[in-house]
């Protein structure tokens, strides 16, 4: 009766698969159907962290082999009224048996004598061996809900080793192991369970065909890392994750996605490789912004406003000048100038320091105007950038002192500049006087070296000066700031926005990554303050993340560090890719919940990953040796241990449905 009520209590539990399996194993053993059994062997030694299993060649052959990394289940030979449960093991290596030396001696003697065959008794002795396995934890029923199971990373008790048997799991039990703890909502198939890189069947027995699923709830508001050498599938996993979010939110548009596409592979199809882009798979839900429009990809312009972000744009100008091979000394001096941000200048108190900072930006503006860059002067005035007294603002007046004005203009009537054209003309007069009267007392101490570098580029004695910036006008738009609000609006509407930065320099990519990351963070923070977050999330995708994230472990002031520390609170998730874990700030890595790891060629990188995330400890050699594209070691927030998975290749139809495809 006790057994009857116990069985009835767990009738609807997922662990019913375990009791059915053990009953079937018992029937097969009694009937002598050993080839149908999944029995692996007995426990030789057992601890809380490791187990040694004694097994035999016929057992391994019957289950199709037991490769390193295999999942095994260890169950007591009798539940004795306890709820159904099992301990999960992962094979890590072979192990010596108490008779290993005797076996080796026998092998030695046999080979020395070149015996052509073994008698049946010797075969029986030599076919036994042992395996060492990690104890990953225990699956058991939820005591408050019979239809749920729980996984714990430890075991509640161990008894004598002879009380346990070890089995290779069936497809149903593998399904339980791999997907049993994944959140039920928003599930999506990501690939197939793949225990080994070698696909050759053992004893004509193929491994179970087990789907691996993830829940997109594990990505929303969480940090996800992609590690591994190039061309091994990191970008493909990113596409699958982005697709999974698109598919699971198509009814509520609860997640907006922003992808910084540095290679143009998410926005544009690649017919040569047969790759379909995310945009063409989901045209109604994706928007593309491109620096350089591509013929077959509908997009909106992605431009910079060189006037309004002087601190960010001067490094971009330097990069563009270097690419154009502009190496004259006065050009290098100009491009090395450090300009303050307009926000920092406006935060300064009135006085000479503020006036000098404003003047430096105004000289930079005059250079852009002379080069032919259009400006919206109304927008520039709205920035509030003024020098001198706050009571007498003039947005284009450099506020030179009276001695400079008197020396430059003499008896000519002077009126302070009110437009960019007037500012340009005014500075041309001042620079002309400075070049002809370098020792004049009126200009002594007025200009520092950065000012002089800007003025020499503005009106050079030799060379093109500001005119050499004209080829870069293609990147400029005086209304460019408006695209930020459009992108934020699209993200709030659940759209996936792809920034095609495929033809951009590293500085331009950095500019747009920093700009939009700050805007997204500020936008979500404001929604949080106003209690308007609801159930809406924004997901950011970064490639070559080591170029963006801070290297210093103590630098937590930047926006990327704030994503790691506060992103979950503000419903911001991010997916970042890089080849090497060691290039990412350790504190940021410590906040990462989800990992996808492909092949690494450096032992130091594999060890660095294992130190960071203990679940990868013991898998270093597997990561170093396997290099099949799409073959990943996966750990998500739902999973408590590493799942080896062959990720599906992204092959979506135009309607957005997933088509299975081999690599």
From TrEMBL:
Matches recorded under InterPro entries: HerA-like, HerA_central, P-loop_NTPase
Top-level taxon: Bacteria
Gene Ontology molecular function: ATP binding
Keywords, ordered alphabetically: ATP-binding, Nucleotide-binding
Keyword ATP-binding applies: yes
Any Pfam family hit: DUF87
UniProt protein name: ATP-binding protein
Organism expressing this protein natively: Billgrantia tianxiuensis
């Amino acid at each position: 009766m006790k057994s009857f009520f116990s069985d009835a209590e767990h009738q609807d539990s997922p662990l019913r698969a375990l009791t059915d399996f053990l009953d079937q194993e018992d029937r097969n053993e009694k009937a002598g159907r050993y080839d149908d059994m999944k029995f692996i062997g007995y426990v030789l030694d057992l601890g809380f962290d490791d187990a040694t299993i004694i097994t035999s060649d016929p057992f391994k052959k019957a289950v199709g082999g037991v490769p390193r990394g295999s999942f095994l289940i260890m169950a007591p030979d009798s539940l004795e009224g306890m709820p159904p449960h099992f301990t999960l093991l992962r094979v890590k290596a072979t192990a010596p048996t108490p008779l290993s030396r005797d076996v080796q001696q026998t092998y030695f003697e046999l080979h020395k004598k070149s015996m052509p065959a073994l008698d049946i008794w010797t075969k029986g002795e030599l076919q036994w061996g042992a395996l060492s396995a990690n104890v990953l934890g225990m699956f058991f029923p939820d005591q408050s809900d019979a239809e749920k199971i729980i996984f714990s990373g430890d075991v509640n008790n161990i008894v004598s080793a002879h009380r346990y048997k070890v089995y290779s799991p069936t497809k149903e039990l593998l399904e339980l192991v791999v997907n049993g703890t994944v959140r039920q909502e928003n599930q999506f198939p990501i690939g197939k369970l793949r225990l080994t890189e070698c696909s050759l069947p053992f004893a004509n027995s193929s491994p179970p065909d087990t789907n691996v699923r993830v829940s997109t709830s594990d990505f929303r508001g969480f940090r996800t890392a992609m590690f591994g050498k190039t061309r091994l599938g990191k970008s493909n996993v990113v596409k699958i994750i982005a697709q999974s979010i698109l598919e699971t939110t198509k009814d509520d548009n609860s997640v907006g996605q922003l992808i910084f596409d540095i290679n143009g592979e998410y926005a544009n199809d690649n017919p040569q490789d047969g790759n379909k882009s995310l945009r063409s798979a989901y045209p109604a839900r994706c928007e593309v912004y491109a620096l350089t429009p591509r013929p077959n990809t509908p997009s909106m312009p992605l431009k910079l406003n060189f006037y309004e972000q002087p601190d960010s744009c001067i490094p971009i100008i330097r990069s563009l000048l270097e690419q154009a091979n502009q190496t004259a000394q006065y050009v290098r001096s100009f491009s090395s100038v450090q300009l303050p941000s307009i926000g920092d200048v406006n935060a300064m108190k009135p006085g000479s320091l503020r006036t000098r900072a404003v003047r430096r930006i105004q000289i930079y503006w005059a250079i852009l105007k002379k080069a032919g860059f259009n400006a919206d002067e109304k927008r520039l005035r709205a920035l509030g950038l003024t020098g001198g007294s706050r009571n007498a603002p003039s947005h284009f007046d450099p506020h030179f002192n009276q001695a400079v004005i008197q020396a430059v203009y003499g008896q000519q009537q002077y009126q302070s500049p009110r437009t960019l054209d007037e500012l340009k003309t005014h500075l041309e007069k001042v620079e002309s006087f400075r070049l002809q009267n370098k020792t004049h007392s009126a200009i002594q101490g007025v200009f520092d070296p950065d000012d002089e570098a800007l003025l020499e580029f503005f009106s050079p004695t030799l060379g093109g000066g500001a005119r050499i910036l004209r080829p870069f006008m293609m990147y400029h738009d005086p209304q460019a700031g408006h695209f930020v609000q459009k992108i934020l609006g699209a993200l709030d509407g659940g759209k996936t926005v792809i920034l095609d930065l495929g033809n951009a320099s590293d500085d331009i990519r950095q500019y747009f990554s920093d700009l939009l990351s700050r805007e997204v963070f500020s936008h979500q923070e404001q929604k949080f303050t106003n209690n308007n977050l609801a159930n809406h999330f924004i997901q950011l995708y970064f490639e070559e993340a080591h170029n963006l994230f801070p290297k210093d472990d103590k630098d937590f002031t930047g926006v990327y560090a704030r994503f790691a520390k506060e992103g979950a609170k503000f419903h911001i998730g991010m997916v970042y890719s890089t080849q090497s874990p060691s290039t990412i700030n350790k504190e940021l890595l410590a906040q990462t919940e989800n990992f996808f790891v492909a092949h690494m060629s450096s032992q130091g990188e594999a060890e660095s990953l294992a130190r960071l995330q203990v679940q990868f400890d013991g898998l270093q050699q597997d990561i170093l040796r396997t290099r099949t594209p799409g073959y990943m070691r996966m750990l998500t927030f739902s999973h408590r241990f590493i799942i080896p998975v062959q990720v599906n290749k992204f092959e979506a139809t135009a309607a957005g449905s997933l088509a299975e495809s081999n690599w």
